[in-house]
């Protein structure tokens, strides 16, 4: 990878609130608290040189969180999107609806969607495509289970998920997609990966994207996050790694000061 890559990849920290703070009032309060903490630390993402920050509440909290983030530089994301644009799909939310609710980002292929809701690689690919078509920026999650890791299949699994998701995209899409490497065994368990191991997978993700899309320069700019039990106490280890461009944070994103400390670790990394 050209050396220029890391220096020009802006760090990004995304909060996945999951099904925890989604009622309008609680989403508004948490978003406002995160905004306040970041402003207090001089980390508001509107400022040049600061990490990008994306908050992903449940659908029902998008509009209220968006109001709390107005003119702040913090961005809003959704946690999922339906792969179809519109129609008789009870309970589903389209990419266009997310745009209308103020989302600029969307998480796609989270392991909880893959494992609990049975989403396969083809579904994740369609979600990524509709998100891009609607002007959303996808955070594509990939990662192996504990069994796959124990069987030495981490790279094969990540490569398969990545290949499927990127199928049909051109090199230009890499500018709009962010990949989150999230080993399933590290999510919500308090058992984070080793930064060196996560960094190795992140580097491999960039190499594979470069090879498949014939786009070495674009892939050198592809941001790869780590996710899985990141908290203030261990964030610097991940965010200081040259191959890791930020974090996707679940549990620790529900506490504004803790989350802001993770953003501070990303700011210290530079970019
Ligand atoms: C996640 O769900 O994407 C995640 C990383 O969760 P946690 O930080 O709680 O492990």
Can you walk me through this structure?
It is a single chain. The chain is α/β, with parallel strands linked by helices and 271 residues long. Helices cover 44% and strands 14% of the residues. It is built from twelve helices and eight strands. It has an eight-stranded parallel barrel, surrounded by six helices. Strand 2 (52-56), helix 3 and strand 3 form a beta-alpha-beta unit. Helix 8 (154-166) runs parallel beside helix 9. The protein is globular, with a radius of gyration of 17 Å. The two termini are 16 Å apart. Bound molecules: phosphoenolpyruvate.
Layout of strands and helices, then pairs:
Layout: H1 4-8, E1 12-16, H2 24-40, E2 52-56, H3 62-68, E3 75-78, H4 95-100, E4 105-108, H5 111-116, H6 121-133, E5 137-142, H7 146-150, H8 154-166, E6 178-181, H9 195-213, H10 216-220, E7 223-227, H11 232-239, E8 246-249, H12 256-269
Parallel strand pairs: 1-2, 1-8, 2-3, 3-4, 4-5, 5-6, 6-7, 7-8
Helix pairs in contact: 2-3, 2-12, 6-8, 8-9, 11-12
The structure holds phosphoenolpyruvate.
Residues 16, 182, 187-188, 227-230, 248-252 line the site of phosphoenolpyruvate (PEP).
Structural class: alpha/beta
How far apart are the first and last residues' alpha carbons, in Å?
16 Å
Strand count, sense and barrel status of the largest sheet are: 8 strands, parallel, barrel
Question: Biggest sheet: strands side by side, in what order?
Answer: 1-2-3-4-5-6-7-8
